[in-house]
Every structure is written in C-alpha cells, then in structure tokens.
Amino acid sequence: MYVGEQWLFRDLELDVGAGECLVLAGHNGSGKSTLLHVLYGLRAPSAGTLEVAGQAPDERDGQFRRKVAVLLDDSELFVELTPRQHLELLLAGFDADLGDVDGWLQHAGLDERADVHAYYLSAGQRRRLLLLGAIARPHDVLLLDEPERALDRQGKEWLGEIVGNERELGRTVVIASHHPPLTDVADHALHLG
Ligand SMILES: Nc1ncnc2c1ncn2[C@@H]1O[C@H](COP(=O)(O)OP(=O)(O)OP(=O)(O)O)[C@@H](O)[C@H]1O
To answer: Which keywords, in A-to-Z order, does the entry hold (predicted)?
Structure first.
C-alpha cells in the first residue's frame, strides 16, 4: 500500500479462516487503520488482490456490507439519536431483526443510558455503542480498529467475550489492537512497520 509518498506495507500475504482471529500490531502510523480500510473496501490497494468474505471488498455493495461488520477508528455516532434509536436504525438498514433490544443494550452495559441522546454519552459509552452496533448487524467477518480505546476494565472484559463468541460462531475477526489480552488470544499476528 503506497500512501503519502511512502510504502506503508508491501508483499503482504494473509489468509485468515472462519473462526480465526488476526491481530494487526505495529507502532502509530504503521498502517493498521489503512489496512482495515482496505479490507472494508474504503480504499483500494496500490497493487495486488484481496478477497474478504469471498469477494473483492466494496463498502458500497449492500451484499458485502451484510457480510462484513466494522468498527473503525473514525466511526462516529449520530449525537441526536439515543442508543436504542441507533440500534433500530441500524437494524432497519439491514432489514434484520435484533430480537431483544433491551437485552443487547444491557449486554453492552448501556441499559441505563438507552434513551439518552448519544451527545450525552461518555467516550467509553459511545465506544460500547459502536461496538454493539458492529456485532449486532449481520456479518461473517468483523473488523475492529482499536476497539479497546476508552473502555474501562469491564468494557475490556466484554470485548474479550465478544471476540471469543465471534470465533465460536465461526466468524473471522481482524483487530488492530495494542491490548495484550486480545493480542495473546489471536490465532495470527501481523506486525506492520
Ligand atoms: N490519505 C492519506 N494521505 C496521506 N497519508 C496518509 C493518508 N492516510 C494515512 N496516511 C498516512 O499513513 C500512515 C499510516 O496511517 P494509519 O492511520 O494507517 O496508521 P495506524 O497504524 O493505524 O496508526 P495508529 O496506531 O496511530 O492508529 C500515517 O503516516 C498516515 O499519516
């Protein structure tokens, strides 16, 4: 990947299977977020080919978006919507039935903030909502960019449970992370930079 007049990474070969977790590691600016953008089809690679969930990544393709869920570093919330409204909007967009919305909000530790505008949520609560949105939408592949950011100890434990659960469900997880409990359980690690 050639970005900003430099090669961030090249000669990269990756094969991550169902139920497996890949951790992207590397110093600030090494290209972890850029690689996740490429995997989600937000940026094209400068050279080479890749397949995610069996197809070329393209976030404008509804079929691709139904297979690949994402939490990116620059993901933002609609501050005028509540956590409950966020989930409802998201699921309506995917024409999916979440079932027990209250259960999901409780699962994320957001039950007491379910009907408060996201504007009033703390940084960690916003992160929890974004993470909940990523795992609640239909997907076979989950891409997470530093999901541990702003999470407290319980939030990080919840994150660990999420990753374990995703793998048990046979989904593929790719995480850019500096959080050792996550990096330790990964099946594969890729060090950039
Ligand atoms: N559109 C762009 N134009 C020019 N340079 C860019 C662009 N996008 C990213 N870069 C550069 O590419 C490099 C990698 O950025 P990236 O955000 O992928 O790193 P990272 O490993 O995720 O960093 P961090 O750990 O700080 O989140 C940085 O030096 C950044 O300035």
So the answer is: Antibiotic resistance, ATP-binding, Nucleotide-binding, Transport
Quick one: pLDDT at residue 25?
A: 93
Residue whose token pair is 């239909």: 138
Q: Is the distance from CB of 185 to CB of 25 less than 8 angstroms?
A: no
Q: How far apart are CA 40 and CA 26, in angstroms?
A: 19
Selection from 180, 172, 175 nearest residue 190 by Cα? 175
Place of tokens 């609560």: 125
Question: Does ipTM top 0.90?
Answer: yes
Mutate to test the pocket of ligand 1, among 6, 27, 32, 35 (most ligand atoms within 8 A of CB): 32
Q: Which residue has the tokens 């541990």?
A: 148
User: Both tokens of residue 97?
Assistant: 């039935």
Ligand 1 center to residue 75 CA distance, Å? 15
Domains located in the chain, CATH noted = 2-191 (3.40.50.300)
pLDDT 10s digits, 101-147: 899 999 999 999 999 999 999 999 999 999 999 999 999 999 999 99
